[in-house]
Amino acid sequence: MEKEKALSEFVKRLKEAAGENLRAVVLYGSGVDDDFREHSGLNILCLLQRLTGDALESIRATALWWWRKGHPAPLVFTLEELRNSADVFSIELLDMKARHRMLEGSDFLSTLEVPTALHRLQVERELRTNVIRLRQSFLRCPGQRSELADLMMASASSFGTLFRHALIAMGQDAPKSYRAAADQLGILLALDTAAFHRVMDLREGKSAVGEMDLGKIFAAYLDLVVKAAEEIDRRWAGS
Q1: Residue 176, C-beta contacts closer than 8 angstroms, at least 6 positions apart
Q2: Which of 212, 195, 187 shows the shortest CA–CA distance to 155?
Q3: 177 φ, ψ (degrees, to nearest 5)
């Protein structure tokens, strides 16, 4: 399988480059699942014993090789850094703990404690930030159908993740599926999630760009995420 070959080659190159400084390599996110879609890229976290400038330089060629294959550049941490920053990265680390696969080293994520005191604040901030980014992306989009579709598809996983974590912050059991999370949040907040499903249809190849009125879908999609952010803010402001 192409995915497994790529992961094996990456770990091999990383071990050769980092030597004994490499503590662990973790695959996280959608790449862990059997139904992984290649366009998403494979997300990797590398744990190093020391993270000096020289240590970073030693793995730069391997990271660049990985990025040129179409994957996000790996996240790089020491274990101490990860522990000290767990409270401000609660969204990311809670997801990693729930959905990861060790490629090298011991499973440090299973025992990593993730404080959730700032989780609700992070969810609210990230929702607002992603709304702002979506507006900015639209304003610099030249108007071609394919580019408008791309910016919506690129944002869907971020909003899907935040919908899940909004549910968690509200004390709900959050489904793994982005679609199910959007629908569950929509019921709680009285939101129409149809536009999110249309964007996911594009992302998953279930609909073609030429079959859709993208301008109308974008307007409804933006309206959904803005209302979600505002309603969550309103509810939490009174708690």
Answers
A1: 99, 164
A2: 195
A3: -70, 135
- Residue 14 in tokens: 């990383």
What is the Cα–Cα distance from 29 to 48, expressed in whole angstroms? 20
Closest CA to 27 of 83, 103, 131: 103
Residue 55 to residue 176: CA distance in whole angstroms: 36
Amino acid at 201: D
- The reply to whether CATH 1.20.58 applies to domain 2-111 is no
Q: Where are the domains positioned within the chain?
A: 2-111, 119-237
Tens-binned pLDDT, residue by residue, of the chain (239 aa): 688 999 999 999 999 999 999 999 999 988 888 655 655 689 999 999 999 999 999 999 999 999 999 999 999 999 999 999 999 999 999 999 999 999 999 999 999 999 999 999 999 999 999 999 999 999 998 777 788 999 999 999 999 999 999 999 999 999 989 999 999 999 999 999 999 999 999 999 898 888 788 999 999 999 999 999 999 988 887 65
Q: What are phi and psi of 145, to 5 degrees?
A: -60, -45
| Beta-carbon count within 10 A of 27 CB | 21
Decide: 96 and 26 in contact? Cβ < 8 Å.
yes
- CB under 8 Å to 64, separation ≥6 — which residues? none
